[in-house]
Amino acid sequence: MTPKMLLLPVLLPAVLAVALLLLPRALRLVRDALAVAGAGVLLYYGFLFFSVKDLRYAVPWLGMGIDFDLRLYHFSSFILLALAGFLFLIAVYATVKMKDAPRGREFMAYVFLTAAFANGAALANNFVPLVFFWEGLLVTLYGMIAIGGRPTSGRTAVKALLIAGFCDFSLILGVGLLWSVAGTATMSEIAVEPTGLAAAAFVLMMIGAAGKAGAMPFHTWIPDAAVDAPVTFMAFLPAAFEKLLGIYLLARVSLDFFKLRPGGAMSVLLMIVGAATIVLAVLMALVQKDLKRLLSYHAVSQVGYMILGIGTAVPVGIAGGVFHMINHAMYKSGLFLSAGSVEHRAGTTELKKLGGLRRDMPLTALGFVVCALAISGVWPLNGFVSKEMVFHGALETGYTVFAVAAWIGAIFTFASFLKAGHSVFFGERTTDVPEVKESPAAIVLPILVLAALCVLFGVYNKLPLDRLITPVVAPHAEAGAHLDFTGHALDLFNVVALISVGCLVLAFLIHRHGFLKGGRKAYLASEPFHGLPGIRQAYDLAEKRVFDPYEQGVKALQGLSLALYKAVDRPIDFVFEKAVTAAGEKFTGILKKAHNGHYANYLAWCLAGLVILAGAIGLLAK
Amino acid sequence: MIILFVVLPLVVAGLLPLAGKASKRLLPDLLANATLLFLVAYAAVAGRALIADGPVLQQTTWLGEALGIRLVLDGFSLFMLVVVALVGLAASLFSIDYMEHYGAKGNFYALYLVMIAGMNGLVLASDLFAVYVFLEVAAVASYALVAYGLGRDELEAAFKYLMLSVVASAFLVGGIAVVYGMTGGLDFAAVAMALKELNAGPALAVASALFLLGFGLKAALIPFHAWLPDAHPSAPAPISAVLSGLLIKVSGVYALTRVFLNVFGLTPALSTVLLWLGAVSAVAAAFLALGQKDIKRMLAYSSISQVGYVVLAIGVGTPLGIAGGLFHLFNHALAKGLLFLTSGSVQRATGTRDLDAMGGLAKRMPVTAATNLVGALSIAGVPPLNGFWSKLIIIVALVQAGHPVFAAVAVLASVLTLWYYLLMQRKAFFGRLNETWAAVREAPFWMTASTVLLALLCVGIGILFASTVTTWVRPAADVLADGIHAVAGSWGF
User: Fold this and answer.
1) What HEC string does A196-212 produce?
2) Best exposed site among A508, B29, B187, B405 by fewest CB in 10 Å?
3) Chain B residues with CB-CB distance to A598 below 8 A
4) How many pairs of residues across A and B have Cβ atoms under 8 Å apart?
């Protein structure tokens, strides 16, 4: 394995993307086979790279310390493997799900282009290539939403582009600052204290990384995209790829580039962002009436656990955050894919119209249930393990409030998934949806694979923790520290775990109360909570997007531009339109009148000119 | 063999009427274009090698006897030869299709090549009288070419042009006489040397004024410009292109620059006069262009304005200013040639030159519209086209030489230029298609090909402006910046 091989994860998907785009519609089977085979090759190399773990490919590029520098080490090889795994599952899934989509060909090409940029970003060891690949993701993000085929898809695509663009802009500013502070753009050589200018660089880069992962308040495009973009896109980017990359970069920023200290200002800042994201997004998720929108708010909420975990800056917290990243990518991807499977057969994802699908679609139901239990943190699934680690980490810092926020998040997560699962797969069949069959294998298999992985990573958590997570955290722990996170992984009999279980029981009671109160209609289970005084008003404002910084920002800018137009532009325009043109035309008119076509006139001008010139030269020469 | 630049077109011009009898189209087209293609190749490829070791001198002989005609090729002449050959070739390619319906192509090309020979001879001349002779050769051919359509307007314009040009020639001869009286010689080198010795105040002022009237009238500087807006639009389009693109520059700007900078030497007084002449022409003609409804008249006034720009830059007298002026001369020759050719395409397609009657032609004539836009933006000085760089150099030179007011005037002229060219674009090519022209078709192959050639040159030179300046403009500007030493030192026979 030569260093040049590192170009493969970048170049192969890029070439495939072009090939997929060029293949005509008639050759759809060839296209699908090529996509799946290409993703398979990447997955194979993902394992190969994971076994190698140490490789570096650096060539001088633009000078001034800007090299094309790719570095494979345990963390990036872990991310590379995860990216390849999700790419493979999504490629298989899309062969069926995107078959009849109007612009399925472009979608496949975007998927592989995204993979190329994502792999490049994960491997980059120099800020300039990193930013290059990172910005490339912006293009495909826009493209994949824009081809959603709904009337508002274009608008949502612009929204996503602007929000992500803002985050990326912050990242670039942060990179610039850090570059000047550290004096090098080579990522593996940077380690600074987050004080002064470096603190500003940290905050900016944190916005870039957390924004990519979809943390509040940079999340507002995700629920919109859930409606406007293909559901495969949701399982691909916001659920899996963006979480992996965002949290990867956040971990690099807070562990490698800056030395985060437990209890330090930057650490607390991260924990606040994480806790706020958990609670606020899960409250939004609870009252959603559409399965995809509900899932999209959870995609936001769960980021909070990862940021909170990394923000604790204690080994168990960091490990929990990173572990939660991979767990979340698996079950959230599985959940979105299940939602897609339901949509594929039933034609809708509105909770009200669905019900009792477990008999029609048993495999999809099984996959959904496992993933839903995993995201809710039910013993012994993977979500339980990583959430426990985050709770322990939060308590270890001494800020109990953040652990409490995380528990509140756990209550409402479970409550909302009880509502969602109950509405869709259990209860009575509704008349809105006719008899349906289970989805084809290419749709069901990826869901079941992800569900199985959720079980595996929970029951046999030693495997991911020892092989994937510990090497990431090890260099940042104090020498000789105890780094066995498996100790209390599935231990139910300690205070933290008992409180978590208590939260789950509470969630069940909330759901049951709402279910009975709503006339045994599961989709109304959140109504009692929704109806509490004060809460309803807050939700109504949220539905009107009063809390959406993007929408408010757009409104403010529209006002500002209107004011500028009226107060500045029109007056200036008046000066040009009326004063300048009128003066110009007047002067032109005078000159034109003088040119009356009379030869004698013209000759007279010449002679007058001669006299004047002779006089002028004579006078000036003296 | 620099005499080839004069002799070849003259000889071919002699053969062309005969060729026209043998073959109505093919042979004249082929002969004329091959001649110009050869001139382009000779000037652009062989030229730089010829003058690598300083100016090339050629004494013409007749049966072994030395004649009074001596030709000199230096950096400045070579630069002009390239310009003449390039624009000349584009216009003659355009004529292949455009002159179809005028008939007697052989005669047309004969006159055309005589004009080219006259311009080449003027550029290579090394004494004042030869300048006068070649100037007349080119001018006489151009009178006939302006009148070539034989319509009422054409004849009137040609007559007016002739009458004012005759005045110019008369005053030129007067000026030459005064110089001869003062110095006893006509050779550039001899005159330059003698004038340096001689402290001729008022007489030199009179001679300078006479030359300024003569050359200024040829260059159409205000107030000697009034013939041009009549003459140039009336000629067939390729002739308009050559008159505006080349003739006013060769017999006006080149002659003026050569005489005042290399022979008389640029005194502060002359410099001031040139700056004023240039500035007034640049601004006033721009305003006049703004008021035109006839596309070719607008272009004609624009030529006056841009020549003013060139004279303004050369009047600065610093090496940078001269380089900027010459570069602008080059760029303007290409772009104005291009614009007149496209206006010919439009006139041929629609039968009108009235801007108000056009509209939306871009939909029917996309190539013509696109090339016209390139030419217009180039002259208006929009980056990254060639015109932008030359205007930038001129403005920088004006500021550096301590003429901020003239620099502001140059910017003003530039803004006005953009104004009327955008007006032209809007009225002729953009907007809704005028229903009258629904059946209009794109111009034939050679017409579009020649405009595309010039448009590509405009864009290419804009992008490669640095190497163009160092390869072609800098050697020419060096000759001028040397002042009288350039001719006095090395031109002795």
Assistant:
1) CHHHHHHHHHHHHHHHH
2) B405
3) none
4) 84
